[in-house]
Amino acid sequence: MQFSDRWPGKVIGLMAIFLPCHAYALCEVASTSPAGFGSMSSIAVRTTLQTSSTTHAGLSCTGSLASSLASDDHFYATITSATAGVVGPTSDVIGYTVFANNSTSYPITRGVAFDFARHSIIDDLGLLSNPAVAKAVPIYLNTIIGSNVAAGIYSETLNIFWSWDYCHDYGGGGSCQGRDINSGSTSLTVNMTVDNDCTITAPNISFGSASVISSFSTVTGQTINLACTKGSAYTVGLDDGQHAVGVGGRRRMISGSNYLAYDLFKSAGTTRWGSVGTARRASSDAEVNPGNGLGTGSQIFNYNAKIYLDQSTPSPGTYLDSVVLDVGF
Q: Which keywords does this chain's UniProt record carry (predicted)?
């Protein structure tokens, strides 16, 4: 205590109090934010890596630390689930890998504790660096290519057990005066929607050339190959082309202002293959692998094409048409 006699007859006491400055941070287990892969076709799921993430994997911290985490500090996350990936309506499973950051350097194995304090992950996130803002730990997900699955909504619930132990209170000389030691569990929902889709192989048709209509022959042995989503029941339609006369009328090729009528028929028969109602073909009507879609295997539809012989021979030229094939689920 210091005394001063600046003013006669008065004694003023001044006391200087010095308190140690503590840096601290506190963490807690909180509700997560769902991770969604979004909506995509079954073909994309099978052939292309899909990514997702959650901004909040259940661990939230506030406060600040005077230095980076020490080697004896840890933030363990143990992820478990009753399934091995997101599960769909027919029990198909789409597998995926969980990562501790937005690279593939640190995968998290299910059932094995992963320490987010290592590899500078917690420090790089700035999880303990701002006393005014609560920050959460994100995690990242990549699908495993190769899943041949049915369409539908897929989901999985991950259980995440967090356990941490770190110094949150440093005293003079950098010694630890208090540790935050705690644990807790939370759950994270992962979801994806798979849509029906097909890959289509439909070679062009050539009738060849002839000087008169009666010389054109029926083109046989034509095939359309479809590989559609596993378990999907679908129909296949061929529209009337660009120059047909009326709906369901004869298809026509064009050269200049001249037309050449032709048509496409189911299998090896004479039933016209069209795009409306019973003129379509069902997946169960395929010549090869009839039934619902196989996903990775092809279903083959045979057809034949012929030029109508009851028309006058048009002017010489190259006659063309374009027919649209559609698949309805």
A: Signal
